[in-house]
Amino acid sequence: MSRSTTPALAGVPEIQLIDFDLVTGPAGPSRLFLHGFGGDKHQLRGLGDALPQASRSMYVSLRAHGDSPRPAWGYSVLDFAADVHRVADLLRPPVDVIAYSYGALVGAACAATWGDGLIRSLVVIDQSFTADPAQHEADEWAEGSYLRWMYRYGRMVELLGIPVHVLAAQHSDMIGREERGRMSAAGIRVTTIPGDHGSCLDDPARLAAVITGRPC
């Protein structure tokens, strides 16, 4: 495999890189696709194929998904984002991030922490960014590892300074009316798409049309 398709950190024996597919094309932007919990690098492949051509498209399997490493702990948004960062040198900036469910939290963390100008836009597919204390893990280890329920990530998204497009599934309770209102007030575009949290991915061509603003 040539250096152009191998992450710079691949030769460091102490570092375990996550698994990914890199698809190259003749032109267009770079795209990073991030799946949700329980998925892997194949979950958004149909959507990627339905979108216009890209110069490079990266589909990753987040840690503990697919063939990626499964560390004993460390499953916070920042842990996932750091894993992605270690392979993202293969993408030519600027990068458009398209992310589903929990992967959208990872995508937002990437956009907030990576260098200026690397990420151009973020598409969120049915994911909330608000805190949900009712879901807080009583187990201190679990909450320390995931850092999910007690933190409101919405403020981070509002301050990204890049276009953010949120696709909210019509029959999903993931993103409530109040959060949609806050997003809209912050200048974040919110579009309702058919389906529930799981089935909203079932029609890649329709999703691609919503993302690009072009008819199916």
From TrEMBL:
The keyword rRNA-binding is annotated on this UniProt entry:
no
Which residues are the signal sequence here?
none
Q: Which SUPFAM superfamilies match?
A: alpha/beta-Hydrolases
Domain spans labelled AB hydrolase-1: 32-139
Q: Does the keyword Secreted apply?
A: no
Please state what the protein is called: AB hydrolase-1 domain-containing protein
Pfam short name (any one): Abhydrolase_1
Q: Keywords, A to Z?
A: Hydrolase
